[in-house]
Recover the amino acids of this structure.
């Protein structure tokens, strides 16, 4: 059994190594469309709140200030249904992302949202993901994220999955 696990680990590492082709270098620019909708909302501290379904689409750009380190900025559109009420909200994001082993990345971001009938909302976001190149310039990027609200109105936390497709210029 230990041999089987070892062989599977070596094979997985081989796939990561083949895909890790040092794509992100200082001065590179990327543009990506990203969607989320596979997320789970939790309200703290009392655990109350209505069930929420949402679909988020955003466009994000990145500029690599050094090899593997990017500054990111983007805009987002969120369609949400909460407790029978529908809303469409607009947001922006600024952050940073570091690529470990060229394909695996970790990132942090600040998100600001203008929600219907509510003042600007602030969120912090951390994410971990993987970049898989479909061609020399086009990549697919799934990521897990955790988002936490910081405003008096919204202290919700959210764990979710986002999927993006992008171009490296």
């Amino acid at each position: 059994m230990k041999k089987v696990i070892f062989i599977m680990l070596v094979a997985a590492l081989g796939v990561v190594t083949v895909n890790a082709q040092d794509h992100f270098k200082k001065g590179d620019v990327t543009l990506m469309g990203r969607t989320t909708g596979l997320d789970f909302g939790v309200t703290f501290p009392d655990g109350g709140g209505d069930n929420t379904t949402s679909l988020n689409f955003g466009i994000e750009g990145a500029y690599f200030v050094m090899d593997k380190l990017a500054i990111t900025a983007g805009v987002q559109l969120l369609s949400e249904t909460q407790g029978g009420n529908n809303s469409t909200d607009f947001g922006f994001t600024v952050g940073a992302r570091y690529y470990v082993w060229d394909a695996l990345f970790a990132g942090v971001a600040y998100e600001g949202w203008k929600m219907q009938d509510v003042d600007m909302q602030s969120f912090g976001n951390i994410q971990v993901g993987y970049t898989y190149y479909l061609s020399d310039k086009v990549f697919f990027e799934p990521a897990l994220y955790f988002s936490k609200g910081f405003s008096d109105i919204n202290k919700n936390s959210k764990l979710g999955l986002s999927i993006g497709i992008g171009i490296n210029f």
Observations:
- The chain has one domain: 2-168.
- The radius of gyration is 18 Å.
